[in-house]
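Priority: low. Protein: Translation factor GUF1 homolog, mitochondrial. Input follows.
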Amino acid sequence: MRLQLLQRTYSQIHDFTQIPIERIRNFSIIAHVDHGKSTLADRLLEFTGAIKENSGQSQILDKLQVEKERGITVKAQSVSLLYNFKGDDYLLNLIDTPGHVDFSSEVCRSLFACQGVILLVDANDGVQAQTVANFFLAFGKDLTIVPVINKIDLKNADPDRVTKQLQFLFDIEPQEVLRISAKLGKGIESVLEAIIERLPCPKVDREAPFRALIFDSWYDKYRGALSLIYVQDGDISVGDEIQSCHTKKVYEIKTVSLLRPQEVAANKLNAGQIGLIGCNMRSSKEAFIGDTIHKSSCIVEALQGFEPPRPMVFAGVYPSDQSQHISLRSAIEKLTLNDSAVSVDVDSSPALGQGWRLGFLGLLHLEVFSQRLQQEYGAEPILTAPSVTYKIKLKPTKQNLKTGEQLIYVNNPALFPDHLLIEEAFEPMVIGTIITPDEYLGPVISLCMERRGIQRSAKNIDNDRVMLQYDLPLCEIIVDFHDTLKTISSGYASFDYEDNGYQSSNLVKLVILLNGVAVEELSNIVHITKAQTVGRKMVLKLRDIIPRQMVQIAVQAVSNGKVLARENIKPYRKDVTAKLYGGDVTRRMKLLAQQAAGKKKMRMVANISLPKETFIDVLKK
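Result:
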């Protein structure tokens, strides 16, 4: 009966503009990584007839190659579904969101266009760190939450235990929780019914002048920048002229379409709907995410936007050859339109040439961006090791009092001021949430203490798991904290973090000297307690990487004028005594003394030039 109803519905060219506001539902799926968001989205598409059942396709909304390879959602994707419930057609606008903490800005943006969310929890793993973060994100925006337990078909599934966790942590009543298996399609109809019956319709006004919020955008090489909008008031059609509240520029609407999930042309978009518009926006700066658009003939109040995400991790990006600089710049500009969380600043390095200093939300975000540059644009960038932004308060001098630049922000170690000029240094902090089985509690606490963490709270979720909260320096967790946590907990612990401002810290600049000459590209900013350990690792690595030369090279790690570690790279040595076949030993000693004097003179005037490959090996991740 359901299939016949779907065939009847989709055999007609349906006019979406005729669906009243009361039968529109806008919602997102939020969950921790790998709890089945994309699989549930696939089943919803099949049950509403948007795609054929048993088509052999999976992760329909994960369109990027990097998403399919890694099995994760990186980019939030929207799709408009039509579902017949009790004889009436309902328009369901679904947004499938990422689950990793690095892409929480995608989740935050998506929630602005929604009135409710499906909170998905794995029946085997239970509530994880990102589940907690996403719940409070939706709860803080006063959205209706439909709790759903997925993967009940697994052998070790325990939905009763997970239901108790939801009740204990979020005060969700057990009778409200739905139990499904997205993989097998079990319980999907109950999810669709809950969406229609529990979630409210959008609070919009179709009679008011047109207003819409741009909550996503991407670049099309034929049509320029395309904007995904949520229509708050009025309607928009092809040919209408719109104006941006942010840039004040006027555009003519060229295309209006719905995503189902392929792009389908539409006559117009009404208030309460989510759709895609093309209006010949040429550059990434014009399609401002969070901007309000309206018809140029009317003056309206801008909708409440959202704060742009603040980059947490910075890395230098350089072309492998300077002849590729223009093509890499074009690729970065187009990709940042599709990923607005990335900040871009021009940078240069004597070793690597002209490049950029890019800001990312986390290490996975950096890796995904680099992979997309290679796969989608054929670029081969060199990425330096990641760093964070430090806040430095300088000692008052005539110059900085005059310019007012007593407080500076530094994300490039080469720009870190001399320690004699610094009055106080601050490093970024985060509140880390770790959920772990209690059998791994000891190693997890040891890891947090090793990374200079201070415990905030510890809470038992059930008989088996503990939720810990720590204040942690951001620089201690961006590189390998997550991997180490997974290793010591056999993969069972989960981690999430949120920004917690800056905290005063004893920071020093670690400088690498080669025969007494500082190499700024190899400098690093570290906490004073870690300076000697990091310095020792750096000089040992450089000893193995730097090629031998005709003179001895002394590799030193120096902080505040004090040498913390040193290694020597032995020079090439010619056997000047090879021609001797006997005789007095003084002849031998004389030749060796002449060689030593020559080496000493050469070392005084020698210019140690490191090949580019050496910098790449040291600087890259």
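Residues 1-13 have pLDDT under 50 and may be disordered. The chain has 15 helices and 31 strands.
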